Amino acid sequence: MELTRVCVIGGSGYVGRHVVQSLSAGRYLVTVPTRDRERAKPLILLPTVDVIAADVHDPAALARLTRGMDAVINLVGVLHDGRGTRSFEQAHVALTRKIIAACEQTGVRRYVHMSALGADVNGPSRYQRTKGAAEALVRASNLNWTMFRPSVIFGREDRFLNMFADLLKLLPIVFLGRPDARFQPVYVEDVAAAMVASLDNLDAQGQTYELCGPRVYKLRELVTLVGELTGHRRLVIGLGDTLSYLQALVLEFLPGHLLTRDNYRSMQVDNVCAAPFPFGIAPKALEAEAPTWLAAASPRARYRAYRGHARRAS
After folding, report:
1. How far is Cα 312 from Cα 314, in angstroms, rounded to an integer?
2. Domain map (residue ranges) of the chain
3. Closest CA to 133 of 145, 123, 143
4. Out of 11, 42, 208, 303, which could bridge 16 as a Cys pair, Cβ 3.0 to 4.6 Å?
5. Which fold has domain 5-154+186-211?
6. Ramachandran category for residue 148: left, alpha or beta (phi over 0 → left; psi -120 to 50 → alpha)
7. pTM of the predicted model, to two decimals?
8. pLDDT for 23-36, tens place per residue?
9. What DSSP line would sit under 236-247, residue for residue?
């Protein structure tokens, strides 16, 4: 049976917006629950999308949301351990348990789950352990599930490359913790395409897919590349393990949580894929996509834009 009605939990988030847009383009009827309709503004205008004010951590609300759906996609995740529903335990484990229970209660069979590369109940970080615990819940369920484990996800509004771009504007020298940590960044639109492709693919049921881009980078290489693209080339000094940990300890208590000790522990495990990208999708290279927004913010690009504006005004 072809799927038509899909509830996307976490659909108003960064990855979620791309998944919902891709679903809408494929003529799926999409329900997006959110506690902040303002955050979901770009989705409200999509023709097949219904944005509903709801607390997805409330089991009764989840039962109402999942009733009548053909599939549920869970994209909820947090990068830093916060309080209440923003904690790793609540966002990754408790919510997954509630969603599975709601699906089983209302008869939804198809479930797609966003995990993370490195998820492991025995991993070095709480992030990895709670992601691994959520995977165990999914595998133990009676649902027709598919799980995705992406590496770090990049795109125009990401909190990874853009974070380094902002830092490089401010700092003359970058002292970089875990400079040799390895990542294989994947483009957000490729992640969305894979999740949508899996929905009514019978072969995808019961499978876990790793999602990575075409190239592996050390963290130092990524920071250097961002500097080149933005026109803010900086000296990057890599820190050893002890200083990397101390840096994370200090930054953990500053506004913005640029780096935490849990992030430091996660980077002890290479964030790279062992399998090719699924569903015949050719993942886009970071060098091909990132310049469309990072290079546009460079001083040279801003100067060209200023000159063009001045000519039009004269």
Report:
1. 6
2. 5-154+186-211
3. 123
4. 11
5. Rossmann fold (3.40.50)
6. beta
7. 0.92
8. 999 989 999 999 88
9. EEE--HHHHHHH
